[in-house]
Amino acid sequence: MPLWVLIQDEHSGLMKHLAAPVFEAFHGAKDDLQIGQPIALLVQSPGGIGSASYQIARFLQRRCGEFTAVVAKEAWSAATLLVLGASRLVMGSDACLGPLDAQLFDPDSETLESALDEVQALERLHSHALDYFDEFMMLLLERTGKRIGTLVPQAVEYATGMMRPLLDQIDVVHYNERSRILKVAEEYARRLLEPRYGDEEARKIAARLVSAYPEHTFPIDIEEVRDMGLVVEEPTDEQCPLLEGLWPLMSGQTLVGQVKEMS
C-alpha cells in the first residue's frame, strides 16, 4: 500500500508538532490520496494538539477508508491519539506510545504541566480525608467504647478540620477547566476507538490513556499496549530490521508526505 510519513523533530520548523499546519499539509495533498485506497502511515512525533491529531485521523478514515499506523520508535501524546484512529497498529519491539493527559503552559514557571496534576491532587486529598476519618473513628471506638453513631460527628469534624486549609486553596473554576481539558482528550480517543472496539471497551482504553500514568513522558511499550486492550501487531522478520534501521534516519528532521520512491 502507499506509504506516507509523519516524522517530526521538536526543534525544527513549522511542522515540528502536530498542529493545524500538519492537518493542512495532509488536506492539501488529498489529490495524492486515492479515495478508498488504504495507506500506511509511519509516525514519529513528540505530539502536539489533540484537535489536529483527531482531524488528521478522521480525514484519513474518510479519504482512504482506513490506514495502518506504523510506529518504529515513538508516538507521544497527540501522536498516540492519531494512531488510535488506525485500523491496524504496527509497533517495533522497542517502540512506545505515550499518555493522553493534556499539557498546559504555566506562565509562572514558564514550563508545561499536566492538566492531570490538579485533578489527581484533589483525588489524593479525598483519599487522605477518608483515611483521617477512619483512623480517628478507630481511635475513638477503642478509647471511649461509645456507639459508632455517637462518634461519627466528631470524626467528621476532625477530618474536615484537617483538610479544610488544603481544600480552601483549590480554585474551583481552575479545577473545572483542567477537568474539561482532560475530558476532551478522552472523548477524542473514545470516538476514534469506538468503531473498532465498541463503546464500552473504547471508554476503558481512553480513560486509562488519560489518567492511569504518573507522568506525561511515561513510555507505553507494546506489551502494555496489548494489556490495555489495543490490538497491536509486531513487525515481520523482514520488517523488523527495516524499522530499527529507521531510528537514526528519523532524528533531527521533519518530513510530512508520501514516499514516492524507495531504494
Distance between the termini: 16 Å
Cα radius of gyration in angstroms: 23 Å
CATH architecture of the domain at 3-98 and 219-258: Alpha-Beta Complex
Strand tally is 9
Helicity, as a percent range? 40-55%
**What top-tier CATH class of the domain at 3-98 and 219-258 fits best?**
Alpha Beta
The profile of the biggest β sheet is: 5 strands, mixed
- Number of helical segments? 9
* The CATH homologous superfamily of the domain at 3-98 and 219-258: 2-enoyl-CoA Hydratase, Chain A, domain 1
Strand proportion, as a percent range, falls in 5-15%
User: How does the overall form come out from the CA principal axes?
Assistant: elongated
- Strand line-up of the largest beta sheet: 5-3-2-1-9
Q: How would you state the average pLDDT, rounded?
A: 87
